[in-house]
UniProtKB/TrEMBL annotation:
It catalyses: 3-O-[alpha-D-xylosyl-(1->3)-beta-D-glucosyl]-L-seryl-[EGF-like domain protein] + UDP-alpha-D-xylose = 3-O-[alpha-D-xylosyl-(1->3)-alpha-D-xylosyl-(1->3)-beta-D-glucosyl]-L-seryl-[EGF-like domain protein] + UDP + H(+). Pfam families: Glyco_transf_8 (PF01501). Homodimer. Dimer formation may be essential for the retention in endoplasmic reticulum. This is Xyloside xylosyltransferase 1. The keyword Metal-binding applies. The keyword Metal-binding applies. It is a single-pass type II membrane protein. One of its GO terms (biological process) is protein O-linked glycosylation via N-acetyl-galactosamine. GO terms for cellular component: endoplasmic reticulum membrane. It comes from Gopherus evgoodei.
């Protein structure tokens, strides 16, 4: 792993408990600063932070998300939070600027690791190229689109030392300790590899329209609690170790399997990994641990005004104390 340059070293020194690493030299091994005593227990979070220089709105969302995440986070002695960012050089600089005022004085240990987006894309493309045409906007398999499928093949890219990781969107606001979300891994049933919340709009009622017309008794696209409304990828628990060992999951990544399922369900999406997980979840729900809606309380209501007002609330309803708000489709998140 490449050691950061002098500016990063100075930043790490100034921030005390938080160390910065940059994974951008083509090496795949993961390492962290050694410490005295027994090996710490590590908790890994990953956020995509790319093309930030082009969007002040993206920077504002990232700042708000990181502020609420770190304000509520609590980890015990001997536990270390690892914040992974996927970025290009300019966005990496912006992320460092956002983190600089947030990290001093944290009551727990953390490390920040930056992964080069181009390097990850190069590794991802051979794995996900065949599925991109089914789950991306447009008609082709564009090299740059591969990064939107990172979660699908992360088990083949991240070092084996990382067994579990949570991938999070930037348009989130945290209302509780993120450490509690890691406890959901302990509730995965045998065979489950991914934890994810239901989609809270009738997105897939719409996307699966042809399959639903041909199969009028299907649960595909139906609202909860008995239906299969699909998934939302804003909060994802990835049991990388289970993904590596799941013969079923890895078979589903094969181009022929993707083609067979997209043909069966007449599926054409544009939401990347979310579409892939939704489709294979219709066929193999046992691969997924369904998170309670309060862990990804989506706020977008676009589909209420676009043909589904009669059923919208059946999808959008979420009872309980919200733990993570998701301001998808640029929806404002309630103030504290």
């Amino acid at each position: 792993m490449a050691r950061p340059g002098a500016p990063l070293l100075l930043l790490a020194a100034a921030l005390g408990a938080c160390a910065f690493y940059y994974l951008g030299a083509g090496r795949e091994t993961f390492s962290s600063a050694p410490g005295p005593g027994p090996a710490p227990r590590r908790f890994h979070l990953l956020l995509m932070f790319t093309k930030a220089a082009r969007s002040s709105a993206l920077q504002a969302r990232g700042q708000a998300a990181l502020r609420s995440l770190l304000r509520h986070a609590r980890f015990a002695p001997g536990q270390v939070l690892h914040l992974h960012f996927v970025s290009e050089p300019r966005s990496r600089e912006i992320a460092q600027g956002l983190l600089r005022p947030l990290l001093p004085g944290l009551p727990f240990q953390c490390q920040v690791i930056f992964h080069d987006v181009d390097m990850l894309t190069e590794q991802l493309f051979p794995v996900v190229e065949a599925m991109q045409k089914h789950f991306s906007a447009g008609s082709g398999s564009y090299y740059s689109d591969s990064i939107f499928f990172l979660s699908v093949a992360m088990h083949r890219i991240m070092p084996t030392e990382i067994e579990r990781i949570i991938q999070l969107d930037l348009d989130l606001k945290y209302k509780t300790n993120i450490r509690e979300l890691f406890e959901e891994f302990d509730h995965f049933l045998q065979g489950a590899v991914i934890g994810i919340a239901r989609e809270m709009q009738p997105v897939y009622r719409h996307t699966f329209w042809q399959f639903r017309r041909e199969n009028p008794q299907t649960k595909v696209g139906e609202p909860p609690p008995d239906g299969l409304p699909g998934f939302n990828s804003g909060v994802m628990l990835l049991n990388l170790e289970a993904m590596r060992h799941s013969q079923l999951y890895n078979q589903l990544l094969e181009p022929d399997m993707v083609r067979q399922l997209t043909e069966k369900y007449h599926f054409k999406g544009h939401l990347g990994d979310q579409d892939f997980f939704t489709m294979i979840g219709m066929e193999h729900p046992e691969l997924f641990h369904v998170l309670h809606c309060t862990w990804n309380r989506q706020l977008c209501s676009w589909w209420r005004e676009h043909g589904y007002s009669d059923v919208f609330d059946q999808y959008f309803r979420c009872e309980g104390q919200v733990r993570i708000y998701h301001g998808n489709c640029n929806t404002p998140i309630p103030e504290d």
